[in-house]
Design goal:
Structural class: mainly alpha
Helix content: 55-70%
Oligomer: single chain
Number of strands: 0
Largest sheet: none
Strand content: under 5%
Radius of gyration: 20 Å
Distance between the termini: 42 Å
Order of helices and strands: HHHHHHHHHHHHHHHHH
């Protein structure tokens, strides 16, 4: 008798338990920080002004608005003494929405899409800032934007197929955020150096380009490792093992499939063929990564979740500057 496969155990992790313990204090902490001016022009600040309960979506979208604020300050070459604090608080918002949703009993299947969408849009906004500030080529800029997606989507694909993956290390989201922090610090330093000090500016730009290449290569390497773990010919597109793992819409595999479909959909509105980019990494294997239409056709709950999250994606895309690419036809 074959042992039953189990999905990821992140829902019972130590971190999640800790988040649940501190959940009651999160709105108060956020409210105090907002009173000190740390969440300017965000959903959080608007909520505090209107004196209404803080919702998980307010926190999630505020993370994106904070990223926009950080990029604008750096792009406008203004002094930014609070950069480290603002970046740290923006990162903390990433883990605050889930506990609030669970405490208010507003948790939904679409939470994973929302978190992942905001994470990817935030990273792409920073990539565009880097491109503008140091003049990255169109090709390198595209590779940088794609690199943020590869590790996340191959991880989701592994979990969809109940394939265990490693956490942390090069190419992981935490590592990416660390590298992006130092790149943004370099950009702030670059803004303080006069245009006439060419050697100093060139040295900093070379440092940034080196970090950009590290982001691209490490994310690609992590994606390739996960593709190997998937055993593509048996696990991916159109194979019965994948279909069977997604039959239970309440499973962890199905949650990852919803998130995967959401990220792929989001990329469509950023003019990135992310499934095509993933398939280029399969090194001639016959298998393909699943497209959104395929997943929607096979599993009704994925289609319903994408419909439910449409308004949120519209708002997130608008905040990120994709005003003409709203997700109106998911």
């Amino acid at each position: 008798m074959t042992a039953e496969k189990k999905g990821p155990t992140h829902r019972t992790s130590v971190l999640r338990k800790f988040q649940n313990i501190i959940a009651p204090a999160i709105p108060g902490i956020i409210g105090f920080l907002d009173s000190k001016g740390y969440f300017p022009d965000t959903k959080i600040h608007q909520t505090m002004i209107e004196k209404r309960p803080l919702q998980a979506d307010d926190i999630t979208l505020s993370q994106l608005q904070m990223t926009d604020y950080i990029c604008n300050i750096i792009g406008q070459k203004k002094p930014f003494p609070d950069f480290a604090i603002e970046y740290f608080l923006t990162s903390l918002l990433n883990g605050a929405d889930g506990p609030v949703a669970r405490r208010m009993k507003t948790e939904s299947k679409e939470g994973g899409i929302k978190d992942a969408a905001v994470d990817r849009l935030s990273e792409v906004m920073v990539a565009k800032l880097i491109t503008k500030e140091i003049g990255l080529s169109e090709d390198i800029s595209h590779k940088l934007q794609v690199s943020f997606q590869l590790s996340t989507l191959t991880k989701a694909a592994c979990e969809m197929a109940n394939v265990k993956t490693s956490e942390g290390g090069m190419g992981s989201m935490i590592e990416r955020r660390k590298i992006l922090f130092f790149i943004l610090k370099d950009l702030i330093q670059l803004n303080r150096i006069p245009e006439s000090s060419y050697p100093k500016r060139e040295k900093i730009m070379d440092k940034i380009k080196s970090k950009v290449n590290l982001l691209i290569e490490s994310s690609k390497q992590r994606a390739l490792e996960r593709i190997d773990a998937l055993e593509l010919s048996a696990q991916l597109y159109g194979k019965q093992s994948l279909l069977n793992s997604l039959n239970d819409q309440d499973s962890s595999s199905s949650s990852e499939a919803i998130k995967y479909a959401g990220i792929v959909t989001l990329n469509k509105y950023m003019d990135i063929d992310i499934v095509g980019e993933l398939n280029q990494l399969t090194a001639g294997e016959e298998a393909e990564f699943p497209g959104v239409e395929y997943l929607k056709e096979k599993h009704k709950y994925i289609r319903e979740s994408l419909d439910n999250v449409q308004g949120f994606l519209d708002e997130a895309l608008t905040i990120a500057g994709y005003k003409n690419n709203k997700a109106t036809e998911i």
